[in-house]
Design goal:
93 residues; four-stranded mixed sheet; 4 strands; alpha+beta; globular; single chain
């Protein structure tokens, strides 16, 4: 699956901005900027990784700027970024 640079989300309170780009090396690389990273960074990274893997997306760089987003919002923003980056509808076969 070809990945282009794409962004989803905002920097508003309760949201997360997710930037996706093709990786220079194998794997999912997450750069997380969050004021609650000490408490919830592991969970945020887990949700991002699980969402990407569920969409069969690998070898990407993710820059996530969190402003207190819930898991459902994180999943939605990652999914939107993938749709924009691939140009494909992830909900159809």
């Amino acid at each position: 699956m070809e990945i282009k640079n794409a962004v989803a989300g905002t920097l508003e309170s309760g949201d997360i901005m997710v930037q996706i780009a093709p990786a220079n090396s194998e794997g999912i690389h997450i750069d997380l900027d969050s004021s609650v990273a000490a408490q919830f960074g592991g969970q945020i990274r887990k949700v991002i990784t699980e969402t990407l893997e569920g969409l069969n997306v690998h070898d990407v760089d993710i820059k996530a700027t969190d402003k207190g987003a819930l898991d459902c919002t994180i999943r939605a923003r990652v999914t939107a970024a993938v749709v924009r980056a691939t140009g494909k509808d992830v909900w159809s076969d």
